[in-house]
Amino acid sequence: MLICGVVTPDMQFPATANIISDKVGIKNAFGYDLNAGCSSFLYALVTASKFIEAGSHKKIIVVGADKMSSITDYTDRATCPIFGDGAGAVLLEPDNEGFGLLDSIMKVDGSGRKHLHQVAGGSCYPASIETVTNRQHFIYQEGQPVFKAAVSNMADTAVNIMHRNNISPEQLAWLVPHQANMRIIEATANRMKIRKEQVMINIQRYGNTTSATIPLCLWEWEPQLKKGDNIIIATFGAGFTWGATYIKWAYDGSKFVK
Q1: Backbone angles phi, psi at 158, to 5 degrees
Q2: Tens digit of pLDDT for each residue in 176-224?
Q3: Could you list the active site residues?
Q4: Which of 92, 122, 143 is the C-terminal boundary of a domain?
Q5: How far apart are CA 146 and CA 240, in angstroms?
Q6: What are phi and psi of 89, to 5 degrees?
Q7: How confident is the prediction for the chain on average, in pLDDT?
Q8: Domain end point (choices 57, 92, 127)
């Protein structure tokens, strides 16, 4: 099975998951796209874990990929410095030793959609001369309400995950936050009462790659991850969508990185 978390699919249809499967030679497999804004990868990861838990699938690839340059207005200084292009993927398999994705809290508040969206390109406003002229195929974001909602919801959910799994700040190995901006990341870490050294941060190199930020962090820090590490992934995205998951890491990353 292959699930692709994506905001900027290659085409309206077929699904980018289908295109990926064809290009890498995956045959006779189940797959589809999932769009939850910047939370797409984590939503896809949690969804994939349920197929594993149900016993219907034994190997699931979860992809997070976005080409944000395709919908970025480079005359809009409020948004164009923020976003980047990127992709990453993880493989999920069954585990009977108590490792893997152990808990999650995922949320949606649709009233937030007015603050962060792309007006045109869907069935409400199909592409036309007017939508192109009015620059409605680009990202629209109201910074202050998005920042306020991201800080409170992302931080609250991450703290709730810690509390209900009895994880103290000292017992947490890593926070993997969506790389929205440094202020949101720092505010989340402060609410969790963890040190900066416990937080994966690479926004300074890649920008906000939307669905790709979390798998890029996991790829970059993989050599440092140890079997049994307590990891919390936290995210926030357009919709509004947000959530957090608790993962107990299943292997020593340094042994598998060439």
Answers
A1: -65, -40
A2: 999 999 999 999 999 999 999 999 999 999 999 999 999 999 999 999 9
A3: 38, 178, 208
A4: 92
A5: 9
A6: -150, 155
A7: 95
A8: 92
Residues 82 and 108 in one domain: no
Angstrom distance (rounded) from CA 246 to CA 103: 5
Total Cβ atoms within 10 A of residue 17: 25
**CB-CB contact of 214 with 178 (8 Å):** yes
Cα–Cα nearest to 214, from 197, 228, 231: 231
Are residues 178 and 212 in contact, defined by beta-carbon separation less than 8 angstroms?
A: no
Q: 76 and 116, same structural domain? A: no
DSSP letter at 208 equals B
Alpha helical stretches, state H, the chain: 16-24, 40-54, 129-133, 143-164, 182-192, 203-206, 213-221
- Same domain, residue pair 82 and 127: no
Helices (H) and strands (E) in the chain, counts: 7, 10
pTM for this model (two decimals): 0.95
Count the domains in the chain: 2
The tokens 């920042």 sit on which residue?
147
Regarding whether 153 and 47 lie in a shared domain, the answer is: no
For residue 102, the Cα-to-chain-centroid distance in whole angstroms is: 17
For residue 245, which amino acid is it?
A: T
pLDDT digits (tens, 9 = 90+) for 2-59: 999 999 999 999 999 999 999 999 999 999 999 999 999 999 999 999 999 999 999 9
DSSP secondary structure, 85-120, as one string = EEEEEEEE---SSS-EEEEEEEEE-GGGGGGEE--S
Joined tokens for residue 150: 């991201």
Q: Residue 48: which of 110, 104, 96 has the closest Cα?
A: 104
